[in-house]
Design brief:
Strand content: 15-25%
Order of helices and strands: HEEHEHEEHEE
Oligomer: single chain
Number of domains: 1
Structural class: alpha/beta
Number of strands: 7
CATH class: Alpha Beta
Number of helices: 4
CATH topology: Rossmann fold
Radius of gyration: 16 Å
Length: 160
C-alpha cells in the first residue's frame, strides 16, 4: 500500500531523474539543468503534467502564463486539459481583466524575471494564483524576490 506522501516522493523523484543536471563547480554547489531532457522522458513529462493538473484542475484559473519555451509546452498541455488559454510571459497585454493566472517556469533562480512578469500581470488588473516551477536554486534566494505563492515540484538541495 502506497501512502500519498510516498507517492508524492516517487513522483518528485521521477521528475528529478528525467531532468539532466550538470555540475558547474567542483564543490558540487552549482548546477546547470537541461530541461529539454524532460521531453525525452515520457514518464517524467507525464508526471510533471499530472502533478500540475492535479494541483490546479479545481481552481478558478483563467489561463496559464509560460515563462520559457519548455514551460510553454507544459502550459499548453495543462491548458488543453482544462480548456483554458495559455500566454507567453512577454505577451500579457491581452489577459482578461480580473482574471486569475498561474505562471509556469522551469526553475526559479534570482526571481527577477518572474517578479517582472507578476508586475505586468497585475498592471492588467489580474491576479497571480501561484508560480509553479519544476525546481529552484535556493542559494540564489529567488523566492525572496517573488511576491506570490510558489509551488516547486522539487527543490534542489545543494551541498555546503
Amino acid at each position: 500500500m502506497t501512502t500519498n506522501i510516498s507517492a508524492d516522493i516517487q513522483k518528485n523523484y521521477t521528475v528529478q531523474t528525467a531532468i539532466k543536471k550538470y555540475e558547474i563547480n567542483k564543490d558540487d554547489t552549482h548546477y546547470s539543468y537541461d530541461f529539454s531532457s524532460l521531453f525525452r522522458s515520457i514518464e517524467g513529462l507525464k508526471t510533471v503534467i499530472d502533478i500540475f493538473h492535479e494541483r490546479y484542475k479545481d481552481q478558478k484559473i483563467n489561463g496559464y502564463i509560460a515563462l520559457t519555451e519548455n514551460s510553454f509546452a507544459i502550459a499548453t498541455a495543462l491548458g488543453y486539459m482544462q480548456g483554458i488559454p495559455i500566454y507567453c510571459a512577454d505577451k500579457t497585454e491581452t489577459l482578461a481583466e480580473n482574471g486569475y493566472y498561474v505562471i509556469i517556469s522551469d526553475i526559479i533562480k534570482t526571481g527577477h524575471k518572474i517578479q517582472k512578469t507578476i508586475d505586468a500581470i497585475q498592471q492588467q488588473k489580474c491576479y497571480v494564483v501561484e508560480v509553479a516551477c519544476l525546481t529552484e536554486n535556493p542559494q540564489l534566494k529567488g523566492r525572496s524576490h517573488i511576491n506570490a505563492q510558489i509551488f516547486s515540484i522539487f527543490i534542489e538541495r545543494f551541498k555546503k
